[in-house]
Amino acid sequence: MNSNRLVLNTLVAQAAHDAGSKQEQLVKDLLNSGINNIELRREYGNATIKELDQLSELRKRDRLTYFYSVPDDLFVNQQINLKLLQYVAEAQRLGAGYIKMTLGDYNDANPDFIDELLTIIPSSIQLNIENDQTASNSDTNKLASFFKQFDQCERKVGFVNDLGNWIFTDQDAITATNALLPYTRFIHLKGFVLNQDKKPETVSFVQGKLDWQEILKNFPTDLPIALEYPADTNMLNSDISKLLNE
């Protein structure tokens, strides 16, 4: 696999974050892996102008590509989230070309949102929606209905397929992947194991039960793939090497 496809979500450095490291330092540390595509987690910082500018300077200095993960719903009470304007402004300040959110209270009976949404999102930013670990945000029919609204639009909202999240909503990853494949623009790769209570827990894609090699065959070979699970340096480097040698 081409290394240009690989993205590191700063969750891989969760231990350092929990120990008090700022996200700017996490990014600097992750650059030692040789990967220059970084998915920033909004909840790992405070989104102040100072912080956003520091991360932007780091991006320009090291020629990084930023993805911006926002832990919020696009729709709240069946209306576009009023905070979306703020998230877009933050992404622009960072120089991020991608924003990821969850769908939320989407109602397919009201297509009037399309023009409003495409007005808010500048052409320089790609908005993507992810399946999370809740049934309401991971209903494949609901997600497909949303993405189909953009079939006649030149600009579209795409899908982030988090392969390790389907198990949390009792869905088959391959079936869900095929259902949403036409809309998929980004992949989150992680695995899962079942604990003593038969509940899923997130782990490295190498360690988990997910048949990641078979599932990745379904996707176009140019889609970015992000690693998103806690890992120490040795594990991360080993996993990167395994993926790049596929």
UniProtKB/TrEMBL annotation:
InterPro entries reported for this sequence: Xyl_isomerase-like_sf (IPR036237)
Protein name: Sugar phosphate isomerase/epimerase
